[in-house]
Write a structure and sequence with these properties.
The protein is α+β, with helices and mostly antiparallel strands. Helices cover about 20% and strands about 30% of the residues. The chain contains 4 helices and 8 strands; from the N terminus they run H-E-E-E-E-E-H-E-H-E-H-E. The strands form 2 sheets. The protein has a 5-stranded antiparallel sheet with strand order 4-3-2-1-5. It starts with about 25 loop residues before the first helix and ends with a strand. About 20% of the residues are buried.
Length: about 170
């Protein structure tokens, strides 16, 4: 999986690693060597102790520790990546599981207190909400409780349903 386009190398086959692939090598090296990274993300500087990278739903994600706690960043939105010089600059938490970290929904990870919030979805979007929440697909409208630790991410998700969702 060299990530090169066909015809650029001797290999007859290649793989499209997606947007952001140009920094995957640097991120992987930083994770392996436990070097801190810093980058611009949505026009804000982000210092991160990188724990792992994973591919989910067509995008690469970096998971790591920040001054605000554990966060996940979409790699194709990372700009101006710099990798620290000091190897062994941090310790990854014992038992850290990248799969569990990226399986979380964006509103499940954050520093806000966890609040159980009831949401009702109209029948025409209930299947999509159920799929996003890991619930069985309903035959009609869906009313469920969602645990929220990041209010902004949760509101963004609910608003994506327009008038078909009610908190």
């Amino acid at each position: 999986l060299g990530g090169m386009e066909r015809g650029d190398g001797l290999e007859p086959l290649g793989a499209d690693l997606g947007e952001g692939a140009e920094v995957l090598g640097e991120l992987f090296g930083a994770i392996s060597d436990r070097r801190k990274v810093e980058f611009s993300y949505r026009e804000h500087p982000r210092p991160v102790e990188p724990y792992g990278i994973a591919h989910r739903r067509g995008h690469w994600y970096l998971v790591g520790n920040t001054p605000e706690g554990q966060r996940m960043y979409r790699v194709d939105r990372i700009e101006e990546l710099t990798v620290g010089e000091k190897a062994g600059a941090f310790m990854k938490p014992k038992g850290f599981d990248i799969k569990a970290a990226v399986d979380n929904q964006p509103w499940e990870t954050g520093s806000d207190p966890v609040v159980a919030t009831e949401v009702r979805f109209d029948a025409e979007v209930a299947w999509w909400a159920a799929r996003s929440l890991g619930l069985p697909e309903p035959n009609a409208e869906l009313t469920t409780t969602v645990e929220v630790a990041n209010r902004d991410a949760f509101l963004g998700w609910v608003l994506s349903f327009g008038t078909s969702a009610e908190v």
